[in-house]
Amino acid sequence: MSYTFHLGRFKETYEELEPLYRQHYKEMTDRLEADGIPCSPYAPRLDEYIKAGDGGWLLTFVLRSEGKAVGYSNVYITNDMHNGDLIAQEDTIFVLKDHRNGVGKKLVKVILEELRERGVKRVSVSALTDLRVAKLWKRMGFKEAAIQMLYTF
């Protein structure tokens, strides 16, 4: 199976990616709720995503197989408030289950190369939907730098 990677804008890719966004959210909330963490219904703030994409500080990467979207990632870019370094924060990385065969690693490599070319100094990611993905990121050179905790009301 061959794959292509495309860097686009959120508003240009939203319609194509919306079913994947919805599926990713369901997988994430199913995992969190199984751990006793309640989640609100899916209701993305599209105006904010579009604003960020149009402003150039939200990058949307699309993974396609035979012309059909099978994965994506949204990554925010900003300046570190402490030193001004250009940094990135993953919002989402998702690949459909039928395509989880190593192509996610390739998607991450594409993302990292783009961020490197833009001068990004650090990238933060969170293993939220599937905690096992943290092992993959460690093998790719990511370092555990924090522990993320959630408190719910």
Overview of this protein structure:
The chain is an alpha+beta fold. It has helices spanning 10-34, 46-55, 103-117, 133-139, and strands spanning 3-8, 58-65, 68-79, 86-95, 122-124. The longest helix has 25 residues, at 10-34. The protein is globular and about 40 Å long. The N and C termini lie far apart (45 Å). The mean pLDDT is 94.
Keywords:
5-stranded mixed beta sheet; alpha+beta; 153 residues; globular
How many strand segments? Answer: 5
What is the average of the pLDDT values?
94
| Quaternary organisation of the protein chains | single chain
Strand order of the largest sheet: 1-2-3-4-5
Instruction: Name the shape in a single word.
Output: globular
The ordered string of helix (H) and strand (E) elements is EHHEEEHEH
Tell me about the largest β-sheet: 5 strands, mixed
Give the % helix.
25-40%
Strand-residue proportion: 25-35%
Q: By helix and strand content, what is the structural category?
A: alpha+beta
Backbone CA Rg: 15 Å
